[in-house]
Amino acid sequence: MRVNPIHPKTMNTEVRYVHDEVVKLITTSQGPVSMLNNEGALTGPFPPMLGFPQFGIPALSFVRSLDNHATLPKKVREVAILTVGAAFGARFELYAHEIMAKHLGFSPQAVASLASGIRPSELNQEESITYEIASILAKGRIVPDSAYNLAKEILGENAVAEIIFLVGAYTLLATVLNGFDVLF
Fold first, then answer.
1. Crossing angle for the helix pair 74-88 and 125-138, nearest 10 degrees?
2. pTM above threshold 0.90
């Protein structure tokens, strides 16, 4: 890890406010995933984001807006997130979202497949098309019209847009995690 967790007492007012907002958000939305160390400092992608607030705070705002306006089922979101995490080998992203996927009811086999970059056979139609779209985007490819149109038919146009922005956000997070060598 190239940036250590930052103790909240050492933060300036702006960064401390963001820290406290993130703590509120993750304690309500991340369920069983622990992202605070014993001293109350955030772990995962948050130390680099708070350590470089000129970049990290706008990035956090983007990710938060996706949470605030989420309409996709949580399991569908986890398929997209784990697909990105697997494509980038982002260890913390995989760690946190493997726990979330199990918490949401995915089987251990499905979680292992997603974390390995393999489409699980047990995915429903919504989850399968989400895997397809996320997998294509995580490879840096253009989504073919046939896949895009099928996704629109299954999920609706707004949901497809949400998937695309979600993949973009978690690609950003994976890049931050990998660039700063964040493990857990």
1. 30
2. yes
